[in-house]
Amino acid sequence: MVVKQPVNASAEDHDCRKTSKKIRATFEHPYRFVQSGLSNVFLVGIDYYVCEECGKQSADIPALNDLMMKIARVVVSQEARLDGNEIRFLRKRLRKKAIDFGKIIGVTAEQISRWENDGNPPSESADKLIRVFFCLLSGDAYLSEKVNSQIDAWLETLPGVERSMKFNAELRDHQWDAEAVPA
């Protein structure tokens, strides 16, 4: 897959393929992958090309879908709150319009827009909800297992009834009475 990245391109007519220099991205000189939608993604171990006339860049990026999912895993696993670009990245990875994503999260499309444009960051609970829904809807088995195990661990910490209990409900005088009983 070739990804093109304009860098101060001029309108001159020329063939960038003839005037491009091939560069290998290294840890010392990584390739900044702005097409991900995130400004802080850098790739190593790929070839990219820089046109010596106009500065346009293009890159050979194999297994692009795998790369984008690995980036998403890092985004949802980070401890820091999601920023607007990260929320937009996750929404686009799910291929959801803001209105549809908002319905899933329980907010309006306008609220999604405010989050994505850093006008009003999501609350801590909304941030967690975005991550959980991404993990469950992404189709990534690793993320789905990760979120399910976290939910199981959280359920184990809840006070009250043991998980091996069953619940009986009885109707008495037009009112229900419910209790937990050993399974």
Describe what you observe in this structure.
This protein has helices at residues 16-19, 64-77, 84-93, 98-105, 109-116, 124-137, 141-157; strands spanning 2-5, 20-24, 31-32, 42-43, 47-51, 57-60, 165-172, 175-182. With 183 residues, it is α+β, with helices and mostly antiparallel strands. The protein folds into two domains: 2-62, no CATH class; 65-157, 434 Repressor (Amino-terminal Domain) (Orthogonal Bundle), CATH 1.10.260. A four-stranded antiparallel sheet has the order 1-6-5-2. The protein has a two-stranded antiparallel ribbon with strand order 3-4. It is elongated and about 85 Å long.
Write the layout of secondary structure elements.
Layout: E1 2-5, H1 16-19, E2 20-24, E3 31-32, E4 42-43, E5 47-51, E6 57-60, H2 64-77, H3 84-93, H4 98-105, H5 109-116, H6 124-137, H7 141-157, E7 165-172, E8 175-182
Antiparallel strand pairs: 1-6, 2-5, 3-4, 5-6, 7-8
CATH H level, superfamily name of the largest domain: lambda repressor-like DNA-binding domains
Strand order of the largest sheet: 1-6-5-2
CATH topology of the largest domain: 434 Repressor (Amino-terminal Domain)
First CA to last CA: what distance?
56 Å
Shape: elongated
Described by its quaternary structure, the protein is single chain
Uncertain stretches = 7-11
The CATH level-2 architecture of the largest domain is identified as: Orthogonal Bundle
Structural classification: alpha+beta
- The number of distinct β-strands equals 8
Q: How many structural domains can be distinguished in the coordinates? A: 2
